[in-house]
Task: inverse folding
C-alpha cells in the first residue's frame, strides 16, 4: 500500500512525512510492513502463531488482530504481570485479550530459556519480539520501493530517510532496500548503539548497507516519560501530526540535535499511537 507523503514545516526547516500510520486501523505502519508476508499468507497455512514481549507492545496487538482475522490461535509469552494489570487490563493488552489472545506468564529467571526454546513447526509459526524477524524483509523492501518511486517523482537528489529503532528491523531492511538511493537515519530506543548493531547482526551479519545512527546528547531510559518528549509531541500535534509517545519523540529530538543535515529529510510515520493511552497516564505524574 503506497501511503501519502505530506510536508511538515518545523523549527525553520521543511520535512517530508510518509504517512504509514494511515495504512490500517489494525496494524501500525511498521507492523504492517513487518507482518506483510503473513497478512498475505493463506489462513489455512497455519493454525497457531506464537510471539513474546512486553504487555503493552504494539507488535503484540498487531499480531492479535492478524490472528483474529486469520482464525489462528495466538499465544503470547511475557514476564510476570503486575496484579493491577491482571485485575484491570488496559491499553493494548486489553484489546489483544478481547481479540482472543492467550498469554503465558514466565518468571523473570525462566524467561530467556523459554523464549530461546520456541521454534516454528508444522502449522505453527513463531514471530520474534517486536517483529524482529526475517519475515519482515519483504514488507519493508516494498516500503523502500515506494520511497524510491516518490524520490524520483520529486526529483530529489539527496535524501535522508528517518525511522526510529526498537529492534532495528525496519531501519536495517530499509537501508538494505534503498541502497544508494537514500541514507537511512535512525535512533536507538530500547538500549544503546551497541545493542542496536548486535540486533542488525542477528538479522543479517553481512549487510552491505546499514543505517546511520543519530544519538541524543542526553541518555534516556526506554519508555520512561520525559518532559522534553512531551514537549516535542505537543509541538508536532500543533502541526496536525499525532505521533507515539515512546519512539517518535526521542527520534525527533536526535534529528534536531544533529542538524544541519544537507539534503531532503523524509520521516516514516509508523503510527503505533494506541499505546499513548497508557503512556499519557504516566505523564500526568510528572
Result:
Amino acid at each position: 500500500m503506497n501511503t501519502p507523503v505530506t510536508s511538515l514545516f518545523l523549527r525553520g526547516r521543511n520535512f517530508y512525512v510518509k504517512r504509514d500510520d494511515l495504512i490500517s486501523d489494525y496494524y501500525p505502519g511498521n507492523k504492517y510492513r513487518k507482518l506483510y508476508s503473513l497478512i498475505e499468507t493463506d489462513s489455512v497455512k497455519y493454525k497457531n502463531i506464537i510471539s513474546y514481549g512486553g504487555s503493552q507492545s504494539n507488535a503484540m496487538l498487531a499480531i492479535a488482530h492478524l490472528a483474529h482475522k486469520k482464525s489462528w490461535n495466538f499465544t503470547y509469552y511475557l514476564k510476570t504481570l503486575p496484579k493491577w494489570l491482571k485485575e484491570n487490563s488496559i491499553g493494548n493488552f486489553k484489546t489483544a485479550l478481547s481479540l482472543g489472545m492467550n498469554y503465558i506468564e514466565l518468571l523473570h529467571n525462566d524467561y530467556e530459556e523459554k523464549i530461546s526454546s520456541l521454534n516454528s513447526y508444522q502449522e505453527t509459526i513463531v514471530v520474534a519480539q517486536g517483529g524482529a524477524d526475517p519475515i519482515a524483509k519483504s514488507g519493508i523492501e516494498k516500503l523502500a520501493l515506494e520511497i524510491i518511486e516518490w524520490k524520483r517523482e520529486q526529483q530529489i537528489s539527496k535524501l535522508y530517510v528517518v525511522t526510529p529503532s526498537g529492534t532495528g528491523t525496519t531501519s536495517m531492511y530499509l537501508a538494505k532496500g534503498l541502497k544508494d538511493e537514500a541514507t537511512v537515519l535512525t535512533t536507538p530506543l530500547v538500549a544503546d548503539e551497541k545493542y542496536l548493531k548486535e540486533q542488525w547482526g542477528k538479522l543479517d551479519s553481512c549487510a552491505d548497507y546499514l543505517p546511520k545512527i543519530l544519538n541524543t546528547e542526553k541518555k534516556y531510559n526506554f519508555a520512561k516519560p520525559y518532559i522534553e518528549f512531551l514537549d516535542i509531541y505537543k509541538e508536532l500535534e500543533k502541526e496536525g501530526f499525532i505521533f507515539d509517545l515512546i519512539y517518535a519523540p526521542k527520534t525527533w529530538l536526535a534529528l534536531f540535535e544533529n542538524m544541519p543535515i544537507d539534503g531532503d529529510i523524509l520521516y516514516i510515520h509508523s503510527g503505533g499511537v494506541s499505546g499513548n493511552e497508557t503512556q499519557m497516564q504516566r505523564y500526568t505524574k510528572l
Remarks:
- Residues 5-25+136-283 form a domain with the Rossmann fold fold (CATH 3.40.50.1100).
- The chain is about 40% helix and 20% strand.
